[in-house]
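User: I would dearly like some help making sense of a protein record. This is the protein in question:
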Amino acid sequence: RKLTFLALLATVGAAQAQNILGELYLTAGDQGTIWVLQGSGVHDSWAMVSATREYPIAVTKTVRTIGGLDPEGGSEYTLDGSFTGTSYAWPGTITSAWDGTTNGQNNFVVDFGTGAIFQMNTDWTNPTSLFKLGTATNYLGITYDFTDNSFWVSGWNLGVVEHYAMNGTFLGGFNTPFNNISCLALDHINGTLWMGSQGQQGTFFQYSKDGEHIYTQIFPELVNQNTLGGECQAVPEPATIFALGLGLLGLARLRRK
């Protein structure tokens, strides 16, 4: 039976699940630094240009951040950290937000104070509430899943990761053995979830969407970094996917020999 290219990529990617295949961008707003992780190490880092804490993050062909609460703002950077000259003001309406995500057409955050998912323009303007996460508050992490047009969110002091449709329908979830979950991100290349914990700064946990703990990785450079926001690039360039697929396929062939 023939495998489609995407199915092949997912199959080979699963064998490499312990690596961060897509670049993982992290915001340490209190330290004024954006970090980029890939593979098993720090790929890049740069200083934030605003005078405020930048936390919610959206990564497409550029990196866009916003502040955690009023009146903190954000900035736009190239993927290698150069400031583009564009700054973003606090959008209002939201009480506070510490992580963000995007589907390429809109940015999204979860309001830490109310548990509401907000949709915004890609410049962080025009916040519109989509739905609330039940009656609970203190949800912090959020990431978008292109495979089914949905959200993954994490409870700050709840020790849970939950899956929701765009209309607010609960699709499932799983518990974690730690609280203070931060920087929830989906590696779109191999379909695994990455997250940190403020209680274990510098330590990051990889999970399958089914809730299986795959790997725990420590990055010594980040042990004093409050990385609340995290995202992988939303839509990798087709050429990048193709090249990665060929590389992973070659690696898989080598392993079979």
